Amino acid sequence: MDAKHYKVLFEGKILPGNDEDSVKERLKTLFHADDSLISRLFSGKSYAIRKNIPKKEARKYEKAIMQAGGQCRIVAMDSSWKLEPIEKGLTKAGTSGKSPLTRINSRFRKDPSKPFRLIGRIGRCQFNSLCWLAMVIEAVAFLLPMYLPTIQQTSTVTTGLHALAILISVYAMIARLHDLNRSGSKWLFVVIPIVNLMFMSWLSFAKGTKGSNAYGEPPAKPGRFVRLLGFYIPAGIVLGAAAGIYLYQNELLNLIQQLPAGLSKQIPGDVGGYLPFLSL
């Protein structure tokens, strides 16, 4: 449920770690207010800073008041619905963000009976970067046995690497589904042949929901390294592959035509009798 227009209410409350006089001065500067208006704001009664404004504008007022060290509430015009406070909770004017432990605890308080809700949201670049990381780990798991002396070491290390790659992949899919405001349990589509290709393509290119959704605030903007792994390298590979197919299309067609003959030479004669489509 959501309302189209809201009002921002201030009741004289301040954030922990702030001095009331300092907050009054900052709010006085913020709203270009005189002493009488500031006195009304801190009278203990509910005072409407702004009325009949959209959600986005109401959030701007909320952030500005929090940066000044105050607390406010955003409610619908008919008072039937209110918005949850932003999760950037400023504990002191000029400092932003919560500690990692506080963020983890707030997630557990949401609904511990639904474990997937404990996982936040990631965007397309972050998702593609994690997929690249999982593929690199898998490649290491396949190549590493050549350099390990014993079978026991090989089995232990490769099993751990495969498990790590799977965990990273599952986390990436669940967090990306949350960014699309979908249940994390839908990652199981990845085990269905053919469907999994369309599913992964959807996760890689679909645009996430704007603003907050049922799984939290929007993901942070990706950094340069994440954009490199999650966008520029995949785009370069796709463009390079398309250019290669276009430039060497005749050679590729010849290779495809010769492929059945090459396969039939590598298949024993008795097997070819059972698989006639592989023999010429």
Automatic annotation (TrEMBL):
<dbReference type="Pfam" id="PF05656">
    <property type="entry name" value="DUF805"/>
</dbReference>
<feature type="transmembrane region" description="Helical">
    <location>
        <begin position="225"/>
        <end position="248"/>
    </location>
</feature>
<dbReference type="InterPro" id="IPR008523">
    <property type="entry name" value="DUF805"/>
</dbReference>
<feature type="transmembrane region" description="Helical">
    <location>
        <begin position="187"/>
        <end position="205"/>
    </location>
</feature>
<keyword id="KW-0472">Membrane</keyword>
<keyword id="KW-1133">Transmembrane helix</keyword>
<feature type="transmembrane region" description="Helical">
    <location>
        <begin position="127"/>
        <end position="148"/>
    </location>
</feature>
<protein>
    <submittedName>
        <fullName>Uncharacterized membrane protein YhaH (DUF805 family)</fullName>
    </submittedName>
</protein>
<feature type="transmembrane region" description="Helical">
    <location>
        <begin position="154"/>
        <end position="175"/>
    </location>
</feature>
<keyword id="KW-0812">Transmembrane</keyword>
